[in-house]
Structures are given as structure tokens and as C-alpha cells.
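Supplementary Methods, section 5.1.

A reviewer requested that the exact input to the structure prediction be made available. We therefore reproduce it here, unchanged from the version used in the analyses.
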Amino acid sequence: MGVAASRLSVDPRARVNPGEPVEQRHHTDESLLQDAVKKAVRAAGISKPATCHSLRHSFATHLLENGYDIRTVQELLGHKDVSTTMIYTHVLNRPGIGVKSPLD
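The structure derived from this sequence is encoded cell-by-cell as follows.
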């Protein structure tokens, strides 16, 4: 999945009307975001490995810890099969982290 480019550019293949160029926002290379995260981790002095992928895992884990539905997490992560998302449910087995009833 790419990151949206900061500028619009003309797509030479796309035409609204014959001869009329189309300006679109394309995607930048994923490595630009990965490099930016790597630099930010270094600049922050974080000694543990941190990548875009580890941020994705943290995001999913925190959603589940905060009581989000597994199907919602599946959709947000773009998983086709819920079994892929189920790997994050290990966090729910930790004592004291389960979903609380609104009545509690």
C-alpha cells in the first residue's frame, strides 16, 4: 500500500476529454515512509527496533485492548480473512485487559 504523494501530477495515459490531460495524486514509494520512520526512531533515541510493520501490530493490539470488535480491526488492517487478524487476540488472554461491560 502506498502513501499519497504531496503534489498532483499529470497522468499521460488518462484523459477526461480527448487531448485534455488529467491531474491526479499518485502514490509515493513505500520506502520513503519506511526511511522516515527509521530516521524518527533514531532521532527519538529509541533503542528497540521499530518499523512501519511494528506500528501496525501496535495499532491492532491497542484496538483490541480497548475493546474494538475483531471484524472492525480486520477491516482497518485490510485483512481478507479474519483468521489473519486473530493472531492479535493473544493480548486478550492477559489478566486485567479484557473488555469491560458498560455496566461495570
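The chain has a mean pLDDT of 81. These observations are discussed further in the main text.
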